[in-house]
Amino acid sequence: MPHSLRHTAIKIGLVCLTLSLLAIAASLPLGCLLPALTLGSFSLFDGMLLGTALALITRTRLVWLIYLLLALAAFTLWPLFQEWPAGNAWDIHPWQGAPALVYGYLDAERMLLFLLGIPAPFALLGQHGPDRLPLASLTPEERPDESEKP
Hints:
Blueprint: H1 3-25, H2 33-57, H3 63-75, H4 78-82, H5 99-117, H6 119-125
């Protein structure tokens, strides 16, 4: 990966991490830091797993590996629909009348951190451009000149 692309991927990762920390910091006034950390870290890791699986799909031509990685990518969506790990009422001790707000925050945090986990590994590991043709398939005129190599 060229230096400029790696630098851009690192910037994307830092922006996503900063936004994730800000999303978790919003739990402080709601009094649910521990559930927010639990859900947030799991959702962020789950999103990173999806981004990694999708990035690795762009790097392989092995059909069985592509299907295996697609299955892994699909499996990472399961916690979003099953709300796992769950934020249970007995884990949260907010003030009077706040549980609806807290549960709404935890559901939004789960989705937001999942989405923030996807871009960094995909930008860092994905192949961004067309596949290179094998050297053997090129005609002699299309092959790179040996004098052009650094």
